[in-house]
Design a protein that fits this description.
alpha/beta, ABC transporter transmembrane region fold, Rossmann fold, 2 domains, six-stranded mixed beta sheet, three-stranded antiparallel beta sheet, about 10% strand
């Protein structure tokens, strides 16, 4: 599929399926073995039909029994071999497909983990792509490549067999095979091209809506939108059924054309064979062979329309997967420092390695008149905050304060390199550059296995994912070599020491799906503890005080500030709680100008230390006082 820009420039993108196939890590030898077993199985079926036809015709002449013994044994051998070889072909082809799907998922996870940009699809849509779309790409081997290879080899062999007995019948069989094996799949492919893109999108929509209804049923009921979402799901399911009906009509037409081609081949063999037999140039036994053999030969072409449809389905699935993994990820400059994975040691060593090349006092992160926002609709930009300038040096702590929805999270994501700035510049200075190496033995011709990524900056999202595994393994998401002692130290730093001591299995306690077994405040502090263990020079923390009581929230913010100064890393945090911001070096107050339009971007309305703002900014002082009471 090409974009309008690519069509205007005359350059089309490569076939998405060709780009994704290397990620399956399929070994050609195994595919060839599956095709070979399929050819042998189908050859047994054709041989069974041909020998059985000869045997029936010859037995009708009542020859000596010994003249039929070889044919009898051959019929038994072909009958047994057909079933055994078909079973072996299924084992071989499905082994290739299932191993390929597993490898494709592993490669996708590797590249998603290496790509620091946000995924801009809904969770249900992402689940559909990682699930059904991966399966569809893997099915291209067992449902498209192998059947096509088997059909080509066996069709050529059958034409040669019939052509040796009667050349005219061989030519007629070849023409009918072209109709069944080329024209019919081509028609099916044209119809699939119109339906598969729509079908894949609708399947993703059904999955997304189903997941939303299952996971958000309570909020949807409270807001009165549950019935509307069920109606949306019914409508999406109806569209999916319509796509399935379109595909069924295509399959029915293809089956009809295949049956027509088979019938024409038999009729042509009869029409050409009888005169040859009457003239004595063709024996009666050979006539029975050329008439009955096509009945088995067309088994090879019967699956080709479905193979053509599967090819389009797999290509569409590959395109959707590539949308998750664009060709080149943007690389942001983070003070000139890119942190390499840490082979071992404490987090202090990791941070020291990230900033050791920076000159004394050099900035780890600089925002220069930055505007942040999102794209909407057909890519139309929407700026939510503008004109922000700040500098983060080793050990500094800066806070973004303001009401909910003012753009704090968007600004943090822009500073982290997850969103491109609408205006201005995100960067910094240092004397040394480092790259993040992502070693892998995966194929490298689709996406690079070593990328340069903004690992010096870590965005700590308010809704960061917690995995259904132990506390320790959730902390090791930040750094794979985190020890039990380091994990306990990080949990103590965020005020979870007593919580850890009360857990039945300590660090080995499983927290449940998305931390369902812990409270919202414990989950929030667990995410902050994970960030403290990460090898990042700059932490961008979104709402660390969320779901916490005032005293605990203030202690957590102060712990972040103390950690920054002890480890010489920098912290930029967004919060609507003002009381603990005395620990920050500077506070930027985001808000809207009273004279500005309602949809105008927010901006920095005041900045300074916590004490300065309390003394000179009336609204800030009032808000802080309300928190203290």
């Amino acid at each position: 599929m090409t974009t309008p820009t690519q069509r205007r420039s005359g350059t089309a993108r490569p076939d998405p399926l060709r780009r994704v196939l290397p990620l399956l890590e399929v070994r050609p030898v195994k595919v060839a073995a599956a095709i070979g077993l399929g050819v042998l199985a189908l050859a047994c079926a054709i041989g069974l039909a041909a020998v059985a036809a000869w045997l029936v015709a010859r037995a009708a002449q009542m020859p000596p029994v010994l003249t039929l013994s070889v044919a009898v044994v051959a019929v038994r051998a072909f009958g047994i071999g057909r079933g055994v070889l078909r079973y072996c072909e299924r084992l071989a082809s499905h082994d290739v497909a299932l191993r390929g799907m597993a490898a494709l998922r592993a490669n996708l996870y590797d590249r998603l983990a290496a790509d620091d940009r946000p995924v801009t699809v809904r969770r249900g849509e992402l689940l559909a792509r990682i699930g059904q779309d991966v399966d569809d790409v893997g099915d291209v081997v067992v449902r498209s490549i192998v059947p096509a290879g088997v059909a080509v080899v066996t069709s050529l062999g059958s034409v040669i067999l019939v052509g040796v007995l009667l050349p005219a019948a061989g030519a007629a069989l070849a023409l009918c095979l072209v109709l069944a094996g080329v024209v019919t799949p081509w028609l099916a492919a044209r119809a699939a091209a119109r339906t598969e893109a729509r079908g894949a999108a609708v399947r993703g929509e059904v999955t997304a809506l189903s997941l939303e209804i299952l996971e958000e049923s309570a909020p949807l009921r409270v807001s009165g939108r549950f019935g509307a979402r069920l109606a949306d799901l019914d409508a999406a399911d109806a569209r999916l059924s319509a796509v399935a009906d379109d595909g069924a009509r295509t399959s029915g037409l293809a089956a009809a054309l295949g049956a027509l081609a088979q019938g024409l081949a038999v009729l042509a063999s009869i029409a050409l064979g009888i005169p040859a037999t009457l003239s004595g140039s063709l024996s009666v036994e050979a006539l029975s062979v050329i008439v009955l053999t096509p009945l088995a030969v067309f088994e090879a072409t019967a699956g080709l329309p479905a193979a053509a449809v599967q090819l389009h389905r797999s290509r569409e699935a590959a395109r959707r997967l590539l949308e998750l993994l664009p060709d080149a990820a943007p690389v942001a400059d983070v003070g000139g420092v890119r942190v390499a994975p840490v082979p071992g040691g404490a987090v202090e060593d990791a941070v020291e390695g990230a900033v050791e090349g920076a000159a004394e006092g050099a900035a780890l992160l600089v925002l220069d008149d930055v505007a942040a926002g999102w794209s909407e609709g057909e890519g139309a930009p929407r700026t939510v905050v503008e004109g922000v300038s700040l500098t983060l040096r080793p050990g500094s702590v800066v806070a973004l304060a303001g009401p909910s929805g003012v753009g704090k999270t968007t600004l943090l994501m822009t500073a982290a390199g997850l969103l491109p700035p609408r205006e201005g510049h995100v960067g910094g200075r240092s004397a040394e550059r480092q790259e993040v190496g992502i070693p892998s033995d995966r194929p490298s011709d689709v996406l690079p296995t070593t990328q340069t990524a903004p690992r010096a900056r870590l965005f700590v999202a308010e809704d960061g994912h917690v995995f259904d595994t132990s506390v320790l393994e959730n902390l090791r998401v930040a750094r794979g070599d985190v020890t039990a002692a380091e994990a306990r130290g990080a949990l103590d730093a965020v005020g979870l020491g007593d919580w850890l001591a009360a857990l039945p299995d300590g660090l080995d306690t499983v927290v449940g799906t998305d931390a369902a077994a812990v409270s919202g405040g414990e989950r929030r502090r667990l995410l902050v503890a994970r960030a403290l263990l990460a090898p990042a020079a700059v932490l961008l923390v979104d709402e660390p005080a969320e779901h916490l009581d005032g005293a605990t929230a203030d202690a957590l913010v102060r712990a972040l500030a103390d950690h920054a100064r002890e480890t010489r890393r920098a912290v930029l945090l967004a919060t609507h709680r003002l009381t603990p911001l005395a620990a920050a070096d500077e506070v930027l107050l985001l808000g809207h100008d009273a004279l500005a339009a309602p949809d105008a971007p927010a901006a920095v309305t005041a900045r300074g230390t916590h004490e300065t703002l309390r003394a000179h900014h009336r609204e800030y002082s009032w808000s802080a006082a309300q928190e203290e009471t």
